[in-house]
Task: inverse folding
């Protein structure tokens, strides 16, 4: 099981802060599953930044059982 | 008088010692050179303070300035500036505020207000167009900021007509070195000018007026403003992220990039960051968003504290009263933020001094009872600091530099030149580290150039390389200087990033730009040196120079505005050098330059020596960080400024 935490306006748009997802492949597959479970357009998810256990990742990065993945829609400024 | 639109052509000078009221003359060519806001204020201070003085000396000036766009309904153009010598740094400080005072000052017929001297009695000043009155403030003294403003409003001849106000709270009266000045709910937060008002026995100023402001090219101006507002409303940052998450939305990306100052700047990550994030703030506590007058962005959080709707915390306050003291209680931060505002203190400097005191206690260097993660006594401490009750609170009210002089620990005292750092941990954003170190007003992220926007909070250029950072720092410092002087909120500049770069961080183009940024240093340095090559206007991405041109009748473009910013930045530097600052003061606490933030990443510290050397070179400063005589000439800075910093023979 992968724990996914959401940040940025995406989280407010879809009212989803975190979820557990079954996935043993890579971030792309993880996003596809999130997309179908939460009805979030895949384009929206692909344009996010990803961190696996605190380390930067890409859509090709592998995920493993027990990983914690941060999905953050684009944020800037301050 | 001025031939330019956008200005009232009049500056009021009030001497509190003699109660003399006079007009302060500046010429149109000075308006062309120094525009307004913090740059014009620097020119006034330069002309009047030629030697080191104490911030609490009656000779210190409070210079309240507006910019040409203030009051003309351009987006985010209620912002005005207050400058003076800072009790925290002993150097020049300027603080920007979004309250209504600036617009009302212009409506009263003034572009700026200079307050000098010291009143014998506690007073406030009431300005109604040409009429200036000194009024007894005994009944207001001791009152908190909101209560003071309410009372002042009720005391107006017509209480229904909203008057512009600036006020101080008990912290300013009691000379807390980082006391702020409030106008409505907005603070001129940084640098302690509230204490300067307190030292002058000045509780408040109210202003009201009936003057109109001329706009030179009205139709063009209005059409541009309309498009500008539309663009800001559509842009992903200014139209979506800032209104919905506020600046608080940065907590999560700062965590992701190791930039979230934690445990008194000893780390860039906090396990419980989510509890104090903008997302949780929006989900659990946000009543609504709101904004300064004439702002289409509305980044302000309105939250409920003790059943009352009040202004919520900014990112800095969340970071520094959250992770930096190992606190994950967001409700407590909302309350402290409100208390600090009411008592009139800068949340950043209070929090930075607090985390430093906690570490001193942990290390056994100062037995003060303050512990990381222990928050039950903070409400009481905030009161005690404002009223200077007891030794611990007294020293916390002095700021971290004075505390470090008394108890040691300067290597981990989070300040630069005496001003506490903002919430960005610079060992994972080394360009921001440079900015903090060289910033004219001390540990300020904005005056430091806000390089972090390239280093992870917007774009994702290499966070650890010094390459290219000095040139970008100069470019951003100058631009922000000028935008602020024009009268706009700095957040309007975020729209300079084309939406696609922000919305598609993984696209080939964005990745290419991220990779290219460090290599663009030479090109940016060239543009810094010859801003004439930037003689263009970007009416959508950066409409500021065009808006100022239409309002005033000046002929500005990107390059010319940048040059005004550069002039301002150098003039501020010259003032600081006159006040005794040296290149040694362009420094960071040793923790940030000598200790790795991440044990396995040898680049995770700020290579300040190298960055500073390049920065001085691109700025055209000598090895001692002084603007060279040729730069002074090129920027048309005051002729005697070379003598000020090099000695009398320089001319
Ligand atoms: S963006 Fe925020 S700080 Fe700037 S003017 Fe608008 S509300 Fe004020």
Result:
């Amino acid at each position: 099981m992968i724990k996914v935490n959401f940040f940025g306006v995406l989280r407010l748009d879809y009212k989803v802060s975190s979820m557990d997802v079954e996935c043993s492949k890579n971030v792309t597959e993880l996003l596809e599953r999130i997309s179908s479970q939460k009805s979030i357009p895949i384009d929206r998810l692909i344009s996010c930044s990803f961190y696996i256990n605190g380390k930067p990742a890409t859509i090709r990065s592998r995920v493993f059982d027990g990983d914690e993945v941060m999905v953050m829609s684009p944020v800037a400024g301050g | 008088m001025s031939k330019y639109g956008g200005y009232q052509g009049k500056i009021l000078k009030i001497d509190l010692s003699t109660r003399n009221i006079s007009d302060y003359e500046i010429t149109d060519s000075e308006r062309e050179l120094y525009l307004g806001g913090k740059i014009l204020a620097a020119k006034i201070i330069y002309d009047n303070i030629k030697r080191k003085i104490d911030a609490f000396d009656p000779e210190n000036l409070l210079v309240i300035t507006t910019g040409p766009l203030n009051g003309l309904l351009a987006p985010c153009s209620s912002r005005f500036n207050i400058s003076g010598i800072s009790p925290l740094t002993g150097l020049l400080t300027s603080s920007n505020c979004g309250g209504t005072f600036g617009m009302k000052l212009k409506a009263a017929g003034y572009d700026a207000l200079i307050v000098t001297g010291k009143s014998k009695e506690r007073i406030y000043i009431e300005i109604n167009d040409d009429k200036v009155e000194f009024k007894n403030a005994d009944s207001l003294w001791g009152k908190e900021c909101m209560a003071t403003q309410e009372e002042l409003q009720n005391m107006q001849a017509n209480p229904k007509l909203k008057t512009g106000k600036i006020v101080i709270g008990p912290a300013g009266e009691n000379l807390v070195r980082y006391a702020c000045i409030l106008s409505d709910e907005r603070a001129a937060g940084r640098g302690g000018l509230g204490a300067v008002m307190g030292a002058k026995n000045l509780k408040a100023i109210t202003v009201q007026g009936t003057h109109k402001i001329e706009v030179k090219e009205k139709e063009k101006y209005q059409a541009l403003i309309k498009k500008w507002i539309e663009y800001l409303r559509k842009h992903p940052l200014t139209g979506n992220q800032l209104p919905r998450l506020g600046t608080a939305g940065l907590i999560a990306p700062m965590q992701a990039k190791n930039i979230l100052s934690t445990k008194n700047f000893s780390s860039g990550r906090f396990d419980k960051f989510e509890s104090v994030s903008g997302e949780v703030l929006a989900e659990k506590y946000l009543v609504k968003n709101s904004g300064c007058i004439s702002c289409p962005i509305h980044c302000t959080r309105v939250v409920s504290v003790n059943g009352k709707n009040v202004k919520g915390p900014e990112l800095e306050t969340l970071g520094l009263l959250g992770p930096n003291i190992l606190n994950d209680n967001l409700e407590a931060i909302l309350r402290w933020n409100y208390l600090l505002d009411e008592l009139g203190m800068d949340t950043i400097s209070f929090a930075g001094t607090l985390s430093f005191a906690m570490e001193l206690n942990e290390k056994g260097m100062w037995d003060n009872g303050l512990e990381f993660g222990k928050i039950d006594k903070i409400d009481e401490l905030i009161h005690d600091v404002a009223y200077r009750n007891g030794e611990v609170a007294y020293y916390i009210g002095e700021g971290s530099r004075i505390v470090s002089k008394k108890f040691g620990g300067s290597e981990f005292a989070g300040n630069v030149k005496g001003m506490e750092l903002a919430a960005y941990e610079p060992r994972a954003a080394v360009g921001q580290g440079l900015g903090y170190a060289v910033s004219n007003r001390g540990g300020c992220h904005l005056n430091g150039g806000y390089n972090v926007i390239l280093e992870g909070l917007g774009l994702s250029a290499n966070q650890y390389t010094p390459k290219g950072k000095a040139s970008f720092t100069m470019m951003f410092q100058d631009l922000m200087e000028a935008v602020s002087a024009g009268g706009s909120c700095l957040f309007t500049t975020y729209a300079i990033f084309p939406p696609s770069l922000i919305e598609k961080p993984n696209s080939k183009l964005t990745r290419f730009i991220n990779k290219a940024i460090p290599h663009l240093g030479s090109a940016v340095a060239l543009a810094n040196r010859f801003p004439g090559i930037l003689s263009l206007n970007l009416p959508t991405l950066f409409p500021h120079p065009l808006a100022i041109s239409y309002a005033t009748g000046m002929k500005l473009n990107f390059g010319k505005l940048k040059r005004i910013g550069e002039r301002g930045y150098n003039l501020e530097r010259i003032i600081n050098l006159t006040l005794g600052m040296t290149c040694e003061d362009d420094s960071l606490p040793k923790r940030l330059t000598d200790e790795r933030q991440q044990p396995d990443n040898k680049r995770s510290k700020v290579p300040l020596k190298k960055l500073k050397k390049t920065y001085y070179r691109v700025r055209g400063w000598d090895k001692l960080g002084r603007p060279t005589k040729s730069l002074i000439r090129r920027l048309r800075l005051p002729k005697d400024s070379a003598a000020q910093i090099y000695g009398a023979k320089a001319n």
Observations:
- Chain B touches chain A through 35 residues (CB under 8 Å).
- The pocket of iron/sulfur cluster is lined by residues B 76, 98, 291-292, 295, 297-300, 489, 491 (CB under 6 Å).
- The CA atoms of residues 248 and 314 of chain B lie 6 Å apart.
